[in-house]
UniProtKB/TrEMBL annotation:
The gene is dusB. Gene3D superfamilies: Aldolase class I, Putative flavin oxidoreducatase, domain 2. Residues 24-328 form the DUS-like FMN-binding domain. It comes from Microbacterium thalli. The keyword ATP-binding does not apply. It catalyses: a 5,6-dihydrouridine in tRNA + NAD(+) = a uridine in tRNA + NADH + H(+); a 5,6-dihydrouridine in tRNA + NADP(+) = a uridine in tRNA + NADPH + H(+). This is tRNA-dihydrouridine synthase. Residues 341-352 have a biased composition (Low complexity). Its EC number is 1.3.1.-. Catalyzes the synthesis of 5,6-dihydrouridine (D), a modified base found in the D-loop of most tRNAs, via the reduction of the C5-C6 double bond in target uridines.
Length: 387
C-alpha cells in the first residue's frame, strides 16, 4: 500500500520528539479521543483534538471540558484552539498550561466555513496583521514551556494571500512550528493543494519546522510532499477517514524503527476489525453504547469504500444500535476479500466547490482592524469546524 523510503530527520516540536513526522489534523466530530486512540494503535505521530473554542473553554462549558480530557494512554496530549480575541485566547492557553491539560497547543487560523469567516475568524483573520500578531504573541507567552503551533491556509483567495506574512509573524512570536493547508479559504477543499506554497513558506520560515497539509491520501503522497517542498512533516486530515491504519503506512515510510504498529493487509476482514474497534472505542468514549453505535454510522462509507459490501449491508451498519448487532452484520462479510486497489484510494470526505469567501463589510480595504470590525470579530467566537 505504500513505498518504504529513507526516513527523514526526526521532527521536534519544541521539546516533543516525534518518532514519525506526522500530525493528525483536527476534524470536528471525528478526532475525538476514540479516533485518536485508534490511529495511535497503528503508528506514531502527534494526534490533535477536535477544535476547541477558546471562549467555551474559558467559561468551562461542560461539553468542551469533556473534549479536552485525554485518555491516560494518550501522550503527548495535543489540543487545538480556535479564538479571535487575544485576551480570551491567552486565558484559554493559560488554563490548559496551569491545569496541566496539554503537552502541545495549536491555534487554528484555517477555518473556511462562511459563518466563521464572515465575522473575521478562521482563514480571514490573518489578513489583519496586528490582530494575528497579538493573538499569537500572547498565546505563545502564556504557553511558556508548552510548545504552541499555528495552522493556517494560504489566505482568503488568490488575490489576498496571507501565509508568508503570517508565517514570519508567527515565527517571530515564538511558535514551535507552522502548518500550512495549501489552499485558500475560497477553494475550501476543492481542486488540488498548492504544494509550491508549502515550499515557499519553508524558504521564508527558517528557525522552526514547517508542516505541509493538503492532498495526502497515502504514504507515498506524504513522502512526495516532503521531497518536493522540503517541509519537515505532514498534517493528515481527510486521507485517514475510514483508514486509521494510514498512520501505520506513514510511520513505515517516514518514521524510525518501531514507529509503526501491526502490518496492514487491508483485506476486508482487516477493515471490518478496524471498524469494530472504532465502534468499541466510541462506546467507551461516550459511555453509552447507543450513542457510540450511532456515531460510527458516519464512518461506514469511508471504511468500506471500494470493497464488496452491498448497499443492504451498508444500510444495516448505518442503522445498527449495538455492538452485538454490528458483530452480526460484520460476520456476513467475506473477510478474505482482498484490498481493491484504486477503488479504495483517492479523495475522502466532502471537497466542496470554490466560492467567494464571506467576509465582514469592507474587510479587505485595510489590514488594520477598525471599531466596527472589532465588534464583528467578537461575535466570531462560535463552535465550528475548519482547517
Amino acid at each position: 500500500m505504500s513505498t518504504v523510503l529513507s526516513a527523514p530527520p526526526p521532527l521536534r516540536i519544541g521539546p516533543i520528539a516525534l518518532d514519525a513526522p506526522v500530525v493528525l489534523a483536527p476534524m470536528a466530530g471525528i478526532t475525538n479521543t476514540a479516533f485518536r486512540r485508534l490511529c495511535r494503535e497503528y503508528g506514531a505521530g502527534l494526534y490533535v483534538s477536535e477544535m476547541i473554542t477558546t471562549r467555551a473553554l474559558v467559561e468551562r462549558n461542560a461539553t468542551t471540558m469533556r473534549l479536552i480530557t485525554h485518555h491516560e494512554s494518550e501522550t503527548p496530549r495535543s489540543i487545538q484552539l480556535y479564538g479571535v480575541d487575544p485576551a480570551t485566547t491567552e486565558a484559554a492557553v493559560r488554563l490548559l498550561v496551569d491545569e496541566d491539560r496539554a503537552d502541545h497547543i495549536d491555534l487554528n487560523f484555517g477555518c473556511p466555513v462562511p459563518k466563521v469567516t464572515r465575522k473575521g475568524g478562521g482563514a480571514a483573520l490573518p489578513w489583519k496583521l496586528d490582530l494575528f500578531r497579538d493573538i499569537v504573541t500572547r498565546a505563545a507567552r502564556a504557553a511558556g514551556d508548552v510548545p504552541l503551533t499555528v495552522k493556517m491556509r494560504k489566505g482568503i483567495d488568490a488575490d489576498h494571500l496571507t501565509f508568508l506574512d503570517a508565517g514570519r509573524i508567527a515565527e517571530d512570536a515564538g511558535v514551535a512550528a507552522i502548518a500550512l493547508h495549501a489552499r485558500t479559504a475560497a477553494e475550501f477543499y476543492s481542486g488540488h493543494a498548492d504544494w509550491d506554497a508549502i515550499a515557499a513558506l519553508k524558504q521564508a520560515v527558517t528557525s522552526v519546522p514547517v508542516l505541509g497539509n493538503g492532498d495526502i491520501w497515502s504514504a507515498d503522497d506524504a513522502a512526495r510532499m516532503m521531497a518536493e517542498t522540503g517541509c519537515d512533516g505532514v498534517v493528515v486530515g481527510r486521507g485517514c477517514l475510514g483508514r486509521p491504519w494510514l498512520f501505520g503506512d506513514l510511520a513505515r515510510a517516514l518514521g524510525g524503527p518501531g514507529s509503526a504498529g501491526p502490518e496492514v493487509d487491508a483485506t476486508l476482514g482487516f477493515v471490518a476489525a478496524a471498524f469494530r474497534r472504532h465502534a468499541e472505542l466510541l462506546v467507551e468514549f461516550f459511555d453509552d453504547e447507543g450513542r457510540g453505535c450511532r456515531d460510527i454510522r458516519k464512518h461506514v462509507a469511508w471504511y468500506f469504500k471500494g470493497y464488496p459490501v452491498g448497499g443492504d449491508t451498508r444500510a444495516r451498519l448505518a442503522t445498527a444500535s449495538s455492538l452485538a448487532e454490528i458483530d452480526e452484520i460484520l460476520a456476513t462479510l467475506d473477510a478474505a476479500a482482498p484490498y481493491p486497489g484504486a477503488a479504495a484510494e483517492g479523495q475522502r470526505g466532502r471537497a466542496g466547490t470554490p466560492k467567494r469567501p464571506a467576509l465582514p463589510d469592507r474587510w479587505l480595504e485595510s489590514r488594520d482592524v477598525d471599531a466596527a470590525e472589532s465588534s464583528a470579530i467578537a461575535a466570531a467566537e462560535i463552535e465550528n469546524s475548519g482547517g
